[in-house]
Design goal:
By secondary structure, the chain is mainly alpha-helical. 59% of the residues lie in helices and 4% in strands. It folds into two domains: 1-36, no CATH class; 41-93, no CATH class. Strands 1-2 form a two-stranded parallel ribbon.
Length: 94
């Protein structure tokens, strides 16, 4: 079921002119079962601390906490989360 939804994302982005056809096709060749990472209960304090210190929603703080924990870049067009990521030393793709 999730594969059906994931398949639509690059197509919708292509229709809106955000990516080209080649990029949409390339994204469909990725594995059908994406890696799903979640924060466990032990990370609640970190999420709340990030949300408070950067005035983020808990949703955005979870993404930031994941990027910190996984030592990876964060992709967002949201100014506030990008500023928080920079403050935390997390690289961003904008």
């Amino acid at each position: 079921m999730i594969w059906r939804e994931l398949r639509n994302l690059p197509l919708a982005a292509e229709h809106r002119g955000r990516i080209d056809r080649r990029h949409a096709e390339t994204s469909l060749t990725r594995p059908r079962q994406p890696l799903i990472v979640s924060l466990d209960d032990a990370d609640d304090r970190e999420v709340m601390a990030l949300a408070r210190s950067h005035r983020l929603t808990t949703y955005d703080a979870i993404y930031l906490a994941l990027a910190i924990r996984e030592d990876c870049a964060l992709a967002s067009l949201d100014r506030r989360i990008n500023e928080a990521a920079a403050a935390e030393g997390v690289p961003t793709f904008t």
